[in-house]
Amino acid sequence: MSTHPLLSCNLKTGLTLLGWDQSKKTTADRWTVCVMVEMTIPVESKWFVNNPVDDEKFRRIRSELGESVVFQQKRERRFIRADQKDHLVKEMSDSVVETGVKYLGHDEFAAKYILKVFADQQRRRQG
After folding, report:
1. Do residues 72 and 41 touch, judged by C-beta distance below 8 A?
2. I need a labelling partner for 1 at 20 to 30 A (CA). Which of 18, 36, 92, 119 fits?
3. DSSP labels for 25-82?
4. Is 39 exposed, middle or buried (0-12, 13-18, 19+ CB in 10 A)?
5. What residues pair up with 81 in beta bridges, in sequence order?
6. Closest residue by Cα to residue 37 from 15, 20, 14, 22
7. pTM higher than 0.85 for the full model?
């Protein structure tokens, strides 16, 4: 991942969505256009106001997951002409920001994502 984000979007929850252009040239005039986004979510009790968990469960979540979890999503399109690449990267980035504000910026997203990561980790341990 490049060190300079392509996009940075501060959400109303106080979280920041970052995005990088990870496009790769695949042939002389074709690209795989890829925009990767990520958001670090601190594992804090404040996220669970609308999705309460008891103190013991929160301690288990924190112990299992550590101080934060990272949401990542990749959007990719293949076999894109070189002259369309930059336009498509901008279009994909704009779409990510629009989605981020509505979906990732929802008050309950952080709690639900933390619980999902915790449940996934529990299933892996049992399976």
Report:
1. no
2. 119
3. E-SSSEEEEEEEEEEEEE--GGGGSSS---HHHHHHHHHHH-SEEEEEEEEEEEEEEG
4. buried
5. 30
6. 20
7. yes
pLDDT at residue 2, rounded to an integer = 57
Q: What is the pLDDT of residues 23-70, one digit of tens each?
A: 999 999 999 999 999 999 999 999 999 888 999 999 999 999 999 999
Q: In 3-state terms, what secondary structure has residue 123?
A: helix
Percent of all residues in the chain with a pLDDT value above 70, rounded to a whole number: 98
Domain ranges of the chain: 7-120
Q: How far apart are CA 19 and CA 88, in angstroms?
A: 14
Burial classification of residue 55, based on how many CB atoms lie within 10 Å of its CB (0-12 exposed, 13-18 middle, 19 or more buried): exposed
